[in-house]
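Notes from hallway chat w/ T.B., transcribed later so I don't forget. T.B. wanted the structure written out for a chain they're using in a teaching module, and asked if we could keep both sequence and structure tokens in one place. Agreed to drop them here.
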Amino acid sequence: MASPLKSLVNDDSRYQKSFQLFLERSSEHQCMQDFIHSKLPDILASIGDGKSHLNVIGVGSGAGEIDLEMLSELRMKHPGVTVDNEVVEPSSQQLHNYRVLVSQKPGLDYIKFTWNKMTASEFEEHWKVKKMTKKADFIHMIQMLYYVQDPGATINFFRSLLDKNGKLLIILVSGESGWGKLWRTYRDQLCNTEISQCVTTGDIKSVLDSKGVSYQSYELPSEMDITECFTEGDEKGELLLDFLTEVLDFSKTASPELKAGVMELLRHPDCSVESNGRVIFNNNLGALVIDQLS
């Protein structure tokens, strides 16, 4: 039966608000930065095959903070290179934020930015129609495979764009996280599959394993304070609940049974730990690195 619940992404301003609150309440960006500064440099060291010019594609780049950190690490590993950076992002607000960030940051002259206000599948279509032959040395897809119809096919397409020694980086919530447990339990009720898939690195690993694709896998420990979700009527708690369930106005529109089940699960030791009166949700991410199609 089709779910009467509305997806949070239908209301962009509420989605952006809940996403900002999520970033404030979680160590999401911190754990990505730790990965970018500690693990990514070695991954990037082998790309490029000695070329003086590198092509990068960011799929679902958001406001660009994480992109620029990765480009900075790329520059440190390959001093003196110039970079073509294709930014693929459907939200005009996020693209605007990214452009502002670039205009304010000195020392980016070595990068040529191309702004593509489109989804991953629109970009794929555009690439094929234009019969583009350009290859990429580094492609990253961070927290975006939830928003494609067929994550396996999307990975396949972008992997086909990799040049010799190219790397594809995927970051998603980990199958071992609280999200994984929440989605495995309530996927049918919560996931509007026309808009987003409840997909974790566990699911992507299964897809890659079934195709015999090898990858490197990393776990990125992260947590999120969801205490406010348990105070009835708390405005921030309701925003966080919307973000966790991806449902617009979840606490007002979900059935009492679904709401009670989700609230109970969020507190469950499989999803969260309680410490000093706070409820801390397991927000672990996973990173997968895939090489070019051989």
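Follow-up for T.B.: The longest strand covers residues 162-173. Might be a good example for the class.
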